[in-house]
Amino acid sequence: MHETVAQRLVAKPNRPLIIWLTALGTFPASLTARNVPGHLKHSPHGSFAQLCGLSALAYLTLSESIAIDYATPLLLRSGLHFLLPGP
């Protein structure tokens, strides 16, 4: 039986996760949402934030967009260093 491209994209990346959760003994239960109203409330906010971020990047030049793309993880990491406690 032939696999479709969609089946390959969905199934193969999840195999390590399924194996790991099976080894822990929490496979089906750990993939269910316990706080469905919270997920439904958070989803539109995250989608709108992503839309605003990508729309803002569309108005920049390519070089500015690439510079922001490369600098974001560095700035985020250094900013979180001061906000979150750690070793």
Structural overview:
Helices cover 75% and strands 0% of the residues. It contains three helices and no strands. It has helices at residues 5-24, 36-58, 62-83. With 87 residues, it is mostly helical. The termini are far apart. The longest helix is centred in the middle third of the chain and has 23 residues, at 36-58. It folds into two domains: 1-31, no CATH class; 55-87, no CATH class.
Task: Write a short abstract of this structure.
This protein is mostly helical. It has helices at 5-24, 36-58, 62-83. The longest helix is centred in the middle third of the chain and has 23 residues, at 36-58.
Topology, pairings included?
Layout: H1 5-24, H2 36-58, H3 62-83
Task: List the keywords.
87 residues, mainly alpha, 75% helix, 3 helices, 2 domains
How many alpha or pi helices? 3
What is the radius of gyration computed over CA atoms, rounded to a whole number of angstroms? 19 Å
Strand content: under 5%
Q: Give the domain tally.
A: 2
Low-confidence stretches: none
Shape: extended
Question: If you average the pLDDT, what whole number results?
Answer: 81
What string, H for helix and E for strand, traces the elements in order?
HHH
* Structural class by helix and strand composition: mainly alpha
Instruction: Report the sheet with the most strands, covering strand number, pairing sense and barrel closure.
Output: none
- Helical percent range? over 70%
